[in-house]
């Protein structure tokens, strides 16, 4: 490989594009606008990484960077008579973001609704009543994350388990950070062997590179990817009891039914994708309607429910129950929507638009040409996982699928594995990690995750070698 090609790979590794824009034949990689865009994005991401110390919300720098990049693109493309090309690319990226935004918004709304109905308080009380120590809780939340994510997707699973950890951990920031790292690793690993576990696996499955059953070949490598770092991290988790008091938690009315509607929403999203080949977000938005109608039912039946409970409390002379009933307010689904983590959602917008602009400038084709024509496929696919840790696994996988290199089933499964679990190396490498940085703001941070990267990378390497050894027959 020439020096220029090496410089190109090193210079653009940090900026794997989100989509391959319609201006496929355009090449601005050696232009002033190209270099300026790379520098702006690099500065923005450095600010994001320093969120813990700067106390600056991560959405702000990437939103500003996206505006500058597209401002420069708009000017240059207008001067070259290519306004329609730039406009089409922007609209395509905006559509990608809209799907992600609505999907995340519904998932966050359900989680906020379950928290408001005290489901996580009840789960916390159950864990405390069982006498689980911090280490047991570390393993319990990690194992649950690993086995729930293949069904509920890694992002939703991570948000659910993070809410539990936040409740149980209380003010123990050290435990919350390491437990969140464990959850991100477990959720990403669990989602790697199921077409519904991660957006990247959905992309590979939909593209027809592997059948539903063939993804199960990744189960053992995925288990190793989680267990290796978890076993090491667990040694640093104390066996002391959480600093919480055991209490009896009464679920608010409708709590269990909201869980049912959440599972129904997931099933609807999977059904829309599996049967009609629509984006899963269609099913998620339909699931939001389930919650809205149920909220309407709760409001309409609240007076009758309160009257019945007040009569029981008065008969038992339960003053605490009467006081609690006096503070009951109707369930409001739009208030749950407003409690979504908007900093995270806006951060995704900035990332999508920044890397979409870099894609339009031609960096995707350059990098793909180097790694898939001059490198061994196993080495290239292993690098994909590292790339996914720096930006996100979705744009990296989209880049691979766009180039569509000639590879065996084993290599397609390998890139599915590495893109899925490689995002665990950094907190910004996967949707689960980014979402948890918002959900556990100030407690789970970029640098808090970074110090565990060596053991996570060890699990990453072990999972690759296990796949090469166990599934050698499909290469």
Automatic annotation (TrEMBL):
Organism: Photobacterium jeanii
UniProt-annotated location(s): Membrane
UniProt cross-references to PANTHER family, sorted A to Z: SODIUM/PROTON ANTIPORTER 1-RELATED, SODIUM_PROTON ANTIPORTER 1-RELATED
Any GO CC annotation of this UniProt entry: membrane
Name assigned to this protein: Sodium:proton antiporter
Protein family membership: Belongs to the NhaD Na(+)/H(+) (TC 2.A.62) antiporter family.
Domain Citrate transporter-like: 68-420
Keyword match Iron: no
Membrane spanning residue stretches: 31-49, 61-77, 215-237, 258-276, 282-299, 345-366, 378-401, 413-440, 452-470
InterPro entries recorded: Cit_transptr-like_dom, NhaD-like
Keywords: Antiport, Ion transport, Membrane, Sodium, Sodium transport, Transmembrane, Transmembrane helix, Transport
Top-rank taxon, per record: Bacteria
Any Gene Ontology biological process: sodium ion transport
Membrane topology reported for the UniProt record: Multi-pass membrane protein
Keyword Membrane in record: yes
GO MF term list: antiporter activity
Taxon lineage: Bacteria, Pseudomonadati, Pseudomonadota, Gammaproteobacteria, Vibrionales
């Amino acid at each position: 490989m020439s020096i220029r090609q090496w410089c190109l790979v090193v210079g653009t590794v940090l900026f794997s594009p989100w989509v391959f824009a319609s201006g496929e034949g355009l090449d601005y990689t050696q232009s002033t606008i190209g270099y300026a865009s790379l520098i702006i994005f690099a500065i923005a991401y450095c600010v994001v990484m320093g969120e813990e110390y700067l106390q600056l919300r991560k959405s702000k720098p990437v939103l500003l960077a996206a505006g500058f990049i597209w401002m420069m693109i708009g000017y240059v493309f207008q001067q070259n008579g290519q306004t329609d090309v730039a406009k089409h690319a922007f609209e395509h990226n905006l559509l990608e973001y809209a799907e992600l935004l609505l999907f995340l918004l519904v998932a966050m709304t359900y989680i906020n609704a379950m928290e408001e109905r005290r489901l996580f308080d009840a789960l916390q009380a159950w864990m405390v009543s069982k006498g689980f120590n911090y280490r047991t809780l570390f393993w319990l939340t990690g194992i649950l994350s690993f086995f729930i994510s293949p069904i509920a997707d890694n992002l939703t699973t991570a948000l659910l388990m993070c809410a539990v950890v936040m409740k149980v951990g209380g003010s123990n920031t050290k435990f919350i950070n390491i437990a969140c790292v464990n959850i991100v690793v477990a959720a990403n690993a669990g989602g790697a062997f199921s077409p519904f576990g991660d957006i990247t696996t959905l992309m590979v499955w939909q593209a027809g590179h592997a059948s539903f059953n063939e993804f199960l070949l990744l189960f053992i490598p995925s288990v190793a990817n989680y267990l290796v770092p978890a076993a090491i991290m667990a040694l640093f988790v104390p066996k002391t009891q959480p600093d919480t008091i055991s209490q009896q938690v009464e679920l608010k009315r409708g709590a269990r039914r909201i869980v049912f509607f959440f599972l129904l929403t997931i099933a609807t999203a999977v059904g829309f994708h599996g049967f009609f080949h629509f984006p899963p977000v269609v099913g998620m938005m339909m699931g939001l309607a389930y919650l809205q109608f149920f909220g309407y039912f709760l409001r309409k039946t609240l007076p009758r429910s309160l009257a019945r409970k007040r009569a029981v409390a008065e008969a038992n002379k339960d003053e605490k129950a009467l006081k609690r009933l006096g503070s009951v307010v109707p369930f409001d689904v739009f208030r749950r929507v407003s409690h979504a983590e908007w900093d995270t959602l806006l951060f995704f917008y900035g990332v999508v638009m920044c890397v979409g602009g870099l894609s339009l400038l031609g960096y995707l084709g350059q990098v793909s040409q180097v790694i898939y024509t001059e490198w061994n496929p196993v080495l290239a696919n292993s690098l994909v996982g590292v790339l996914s840790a720096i930006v996100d696994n979705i744009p990296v996988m989209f880049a691979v699928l766009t180039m569509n290199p000639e590879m065996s089933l084993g290599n397609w499964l390998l890139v599915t594995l590495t893109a899925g679990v490689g995002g665990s190396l950094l907190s910004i490498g996967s949707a689960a990690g980014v979402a948890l940085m918002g959900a556990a703001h100030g407690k789970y941070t970029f640098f808090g995750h970074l110090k565990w990267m060596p053991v996570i990378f060890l699990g990453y390497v072990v999972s690759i070698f296990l796949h090469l050894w166990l599934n050698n027959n499909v290469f």
